[in-house]
Amino acid sequence: MARVQHDDGTVVERFHATSGRVTGWMAMVLAAVVVVAGVAYADDGFPLWVAAAALLVGVLAWAAMLRPALWVTTEHLVMRNLAETVHVRLAAVEEMAVRQVLVVRAADRRWVSTVVGRTWRKALTSRHRPGGLATDAALAPTEGMHYADFVEDRLHDLVDKARSREGVRPGSREHLALPDAVRREPAMVPIVLVVGSVLLLLVSFFL
Asked: TM segments (predicted)?
């Protein structure tokens, strides 16, 4: 029987985003300029709906491009996305691959993180990782190694080690029956900001 592990939330490793950050910051800066202009020139006839639309774009840019994050704790892979944070028990991961996004299968569902990914061309030509534990050389990026390759190897290594600690074999009945395989937490702050921005935009059309 698999042993239940206690996760104290200690971060083992964080992975940086491979794309979208520059675009996200540019969108936020542009949105902020338009919002400030809307407030400054409101009495001069600046359209309120334009400022409200810019605010919505800025919020969406932050929530979709800058907020997402990916890290690993003692026992979980944590994927922070636009509307929720998903905690996937490492030992319960059934399949995992980095394509244009990171795709993880656990608890009979697919979970996606946009933090790490490959270009469409790179995703078509990327190698498939063989089964078994990753070698020590795969635990750190080497010269010329694509960062997505490093992330994929590192995550597979952490998953393999978690399975060994739990005493489960991939695809076994015990593996598929691991309790608390996935925990989801709604992201209230971005949800409230997006909804509030949409409502403000709708109201602005009638002012």
From this structure: 22-42, 48-70, 187-206
